[in-house]
Structure of Cytochrome P450:
Amino acid sequence: KREPCLLETKVPFLDSAIGILRHRVNYLVNLRNTYGVSIHTLRMPFQRLYVVHAPELIQFIQSKANATTFVPNLLDFGMLFSGLNVDSQRCLRRAFGLQGNAFTMSVHKYLLSGPSLKAATRAAVDRLSASVPNNFQHNRQEGLLELVRRELTLALTGAVYGPENPYDDPEIEAGWRDFVPGISHLLYSPFPSLTAHKALRGRSRVIDAFRKYFETGGHLQAFPMVPEMYEMNKSHGLTSDEAAKMEMATSLAMLSSGAVTSFWLMFHILSDATALQNIRKELLSIIKDEPESAETTLRTKMLNLNSIKERCPTLVAMMNETLRYHSTVINIKQVQHDTTLADEYLLKKNAIVMIPGQSIHHNTDIWGPGAKTFDHHRFLSTESKKNLSSTSAFRPFGAGVTMCPGRHFSTNVILSLVAMIVLQYDVMPQAGEWVAPTKRNADLWNAMPKPDWDVGVWLAKINEEKEVQWKFLWGDDAAIM
Ligand code: HEM
């Protein structure tokens, strides 16, 4: 009786499974909207789930005092979809317990801040500035998601895996794309080998490529994070082949949300003429003309992308609003022992606590009456900006010790890609007008929802810029001044 109330119990144990299958990412938020509860229980076969919606309860769960009661556990998720064998799983559980894994530790060490974050960002930006002019051709027609996805995949993986990046091979990139839709099957299907056959074949192709990459020393030329986590996994007893599989976890963290975020950000910018104009104006105000050289007749314009966060408030505000408005993040923690939350709710040992980000991001008490609409001005106001630093209000990257350590790397690279596109191209909808795709089929496990269909666009190089040669770089902070 003291447990949070149980909702939807027409068919015991199966209501929730059916609800998730039918409504996917919207299921938990629909329940909150229907019943208006702060916390409730869902019963799944062999598992109790508590879904927490109220900011004050979330604060209790996240408090330092409760850090050992509510423990995140991403290791199981990583091991499940990377296909590690039982011995390797045992090794990693023994080595790390619930304290992350070699991958999460290395990302925290290398990408969270400092010179290594700068080096990784710079490597990704260099790749983008070389590839955008080749792939974004005048008059090209393609899906917007597909355009940004390919650019980001090659830039992010290139920066991390170095010159021998397995994803440079289109076959391997296609293998990854085949694999991603299978993740939901690995999580929920009793027979993934039957229901996700194509996805598992794609995974094998990617893993084989990584085996070869490590065997031939490709990792020795990579960002130091890669050899470090490989060696760490081997030192805990994984064979080389099994350690290579853990790159599925790195790839998923790196690739699952960035392209979708860029798609929605681009969509909102392009479909709002005022926003687009303001963003172009802000970017143009920080461009420098390079001194003319005898070698070329083109004018060279240089943009230090490192200054965007300081000098382009509208672009940054739209990025934050894209994350707030669209995020489908669900934080998952495991209850370590029977406990009473906020002196009221009994939570049982081994149950899973789920915190849907949308309950917070669309909460009118926090964000005002317009919480459920996209507002490109929202984060220009001081009041809303204050909320950015509170994970009880803004949590697209999670919260606490497991808060996404790749958040700065990904925002740096996404903002850079968007700046390169809007400065050089007019991007028009093939359909004649911008129509936002629905997100009904988005995956429950992804922090950002993929659109149900891609939006066909038509690229036109901006006329004035035909005579211009662009130089995009990620400079030192001092260069901003
Ligand atoms: C827009 C892009 C991204 C979004 C929205 C995003 C979101 C998230 C979220 C919601 C979590 C779970 C946090 C929690 O449980 O509290 C997470 C964890 C993580 N992310 Fe990201 N992420 C992005 C990009 C990246 C990139 C590019 C990398 C790495 C290169 C990365 C690496 C990680 C890692 C290692 C974790 C696990 C942290 C831990 O357990 O300690 N992410 N991310």
